[in-house]
Design a protein that fits this description.
oxidoreductase; EC 1.5.5.2; TIM Barrel; binds flavin-adenine dinucleotide; about 300 residues; nucleotide-binding; alpha/beta; about 50% helix
Length: about 300
Amino acid sequence: MINKFIASVLPYLPKKFVWIFSRRYISGKKIDDAVAASHKLAKEGIRVTIDHLGEYISEISQADEVRKVYLEMIDRFEKEGIQATYSLKPSSFGLQIDFETGYNYVREIVEKARSYGSFVRIDMEDSSCVDDELKLYQKLHDLFPKNVGIVIQAYLKRTPEDLEFLAELHSPEKPVNVRLCKGIYVEPENIAVKDRKEINSHFLEALDFLFQKGIYVGIATHDRELTDGAQELVKRYSLTGKNYEFQMLYGVTPELRKELLAAGHQMRVYVPFGEQWFGYSTRRLKENPRMAFYIIKALFYRG
Ligand SMILES: Cc1cc2nc3c(=O)[nH]c(=O)nc-3n(C[C@H](O)[C@H](O)[C@H](O)COP(=O)(O)OP(=O)(O)OC[C@H]3O[C@@H](n4cnc5c(N)ncnc54)[C@H](O)[C@@H]3O)c2cc1C
């Protein structure tokens, strides 16, 4: 109840106040802020994936602005010599409005990253986007297999079939690269599992499947039960940094992050930046009021 209340009033509070809640999770408004945050993380031996925070677009012409930011951002990070990959939300390139145009925009971003030998992760959005985003991945993977990856959400009931689909695409010449996460959107019960225990066992089953197929996995979680389970699987299959990395969100559970690094695992942090931080924060809070709890909790408990 309290979380829902906080989530619903935050959009009406002064931006400066909301920033107090959000700044731990967002590197800043400018590319410079993301660059500075990435340099700091690099000193701790952490790699980054950079995300530009955008609002939902209603007209395909708005996607051109997003495209420009991504192209500028990739040039900037590569010139800085930062070991970055880039994460993007296809809806901000208009994929839901006009698939072909959205595809062409994302393709240009992947080509730019590829020109530096880098990589673009297609974030997975809500369940209405999954078919299109898998199709987008399939097309781009066919052209640039080593420079593009996709996300799988463990809470979706369709995930086992999507994993089979990805395993079919995977080969030594055209390796598939998956980020596995629980899934952040509020979905109806016929589409997504709600029970935390069940989501966790689906997560580990999916991870086991991906490891058995030899697919590289970005294990994206802050849940100790899952990082423990993942480490057991890593041991069982004698895996190395060539097979997986852990991934976490900027500002979340830095202590667990340190523990995993100390245990010798690779870590990548998702670093968001952008002028649209306010819309991003309040939308995330509305989508998932539990975030309000995390944000409040983080003000009092560190790590
Ligand atoms: C690198 C990365 C990329 C992601 N990409 C996607 C994506 O493309 N699509 C998608 O649907 N979801 C994505 N997610 C979000 C993911 O689906 C989960 O919603 C999110 O990670 C929370 O789940 P959890 O596994 O950390 O477990 P939880 O049980 O939710 O969290 C475990 C613990 O972590 C802490 N925690 C978790 N989240 C937060 C937070 N935001 N603030 C403060 N503390 C927190 C809390 O202490 C909590 O008890 C991504 C997550 C990460 C780490």
